[in-house]
Amino acid sequence: MSGVRGPSDYTHEPPRHPCLRINAKEPFNAEPPRDALISSFITPVDLFFKRNHGPIPIVDDIERYRVSIRGLVKNSIHLSMADIKNLPKYSVTATLQCAGNRRTAMSNIRTVRGVGWDVSALGNATWGGAKLSDVLELAGIPKLMGVTSYGGKHVEFVSVDRCKEEEGGPYKASIPLSQAANPAADVLLAYEMNGEVLIRDHGYPLRVIVPGVIGARSVKWLDNINIIAEECQGFFMQKDYKMFPPSVNWDNIIWDTRKPQMDFPVQCAICSLEDVDVVKQGKITISGYAVSGGGRGIERVDISVDGGKIWLEANRYQKPGVPYIPDDITSEKWAWVLFKVDVEVANNSEIIAKAVDMAANVQPENVESIWNLRGILNTSWHRVRVQNASPATPRSNL
Ligand SMILES: Nc1nc2c(c(=O)[nH]1)N[C@H]1C(S)=C(S)[C@@H](COP(=O)(O)O)O[C@H]1N2
Ligand SMILES: [Mo]
């Protein structure tokens, strides 16, 4: 009906960059190599991580595409892409991070359920589109409204992809109306990524971007927007993407006891080195990314090259050469910062990175203390181990 449909198999998947590391093939889940991630502040579209729960939807006729806004509102409306593009266009640079980022390292402690990810299940893009607050206004919901006169308190986004978790139904999620109708929250209905038309993998023709919130709420291939009284009852809100304590296992879990995860916590990772890496003796440059949720900028990134005894502060930047100042109005509040520091490393040492956000939240020291059965939000100190390549490693004569 809306001009976009979810196929039932994987015969119509789009082409993908050969550099991506595939964590699951069907549905397609892939991330770029660590060093590719930090080669630019803006992540190129083809290297941006792809996180799917079903086959990629197909748009047969963009002219026929409509997104409807309905439910507990005065006016139900159906908007074409032209209607959406008629609204003021905003560009928001925001980091999208999957809650499962760094899951593999958590599963090394104790088994968790979910697709394994290294440290690259995130990316930083400039999203172009209409503000959701402007779209809601067309349906009769004034800006900054927390509840409609019909009792609507949540905004549900429904897609068209077919997910096995939803028993073949579409992916869906919701955010509070107070956030959706707040222009300062920068929630977008995005049709562009890095200045180009959104590609199929990232939600063509239209997706939601909820800055500062786990990626799971940024619904791709938008079909309907429903104004509802309670939060969305879909699988990905109620039976997934919730944070449980280490004591909860699959035998004693009670999903209702926790709220769906929204903001992501402070996070950072070293991307210039693999988990165990061989480096030349002496000085090396360590670099990576740091980001926090909820619009809390990064205050500091601390690096240790001796397993956490001595710490030094890394340089942070968003534009190369321009120092990052967290509360400066020119710093992009939803975007990551990249960090860099030159250090002298001893043979066989552990290098650690930890970030501190503007609210002085700091990453937890050990993954054990935040282990959870779904393996989400592994934000523990990022550790890598380096061994020096001896300068005169003899090469075998062929
Ligand atoms: N319709 C739909 N939207 C979705 C998903 C999905 O499977 N289907 N995955 C979500 C999750 S878990 C994440 S992390 C992000 C990933 O966005 P990306 O693939 O554009 O990087 O999309 C979110 N939106
Ligand atoms: Mo995700």
From TrEMBL:
Keyword Membrane part of the UniProt annotation: no
Record GO terms (molecular function): heme binding; molybdenum ion binding; molybdopterin cofactor binding; sulfite oxidase activity
Domain of life: Eukaryota
Cofactor(s) annotated in UniProt: Mo-molybdopterin
Cited InterPro entries: Ig_E-set, MoCF_OxRdtse_dimer, Mopterin_OxRdtase_euk, OxRdtase_Mopterin-bd_dom, OxRdtase_Mopterin-bd_sf
EC number: 1.8.3.1
Key word NADP present: no
GO terms under biological process: sulfur compound metabolic process
CDD domains with a match to the protein in the record: eukary_SO_Moco (cd02111)
Pathway: Sulfur metabolism; Energy metabolism; sulfur metabolism
Alphabetic keyword roster: Metal-binding, Molybdenum, Oxidoreductase
This protein's name: Sulfite oxidase
Phylogenetic classification of the source organism: Eukaryota, Viridiplantae, Streptophyta, Embryophyta, Tracheophyta
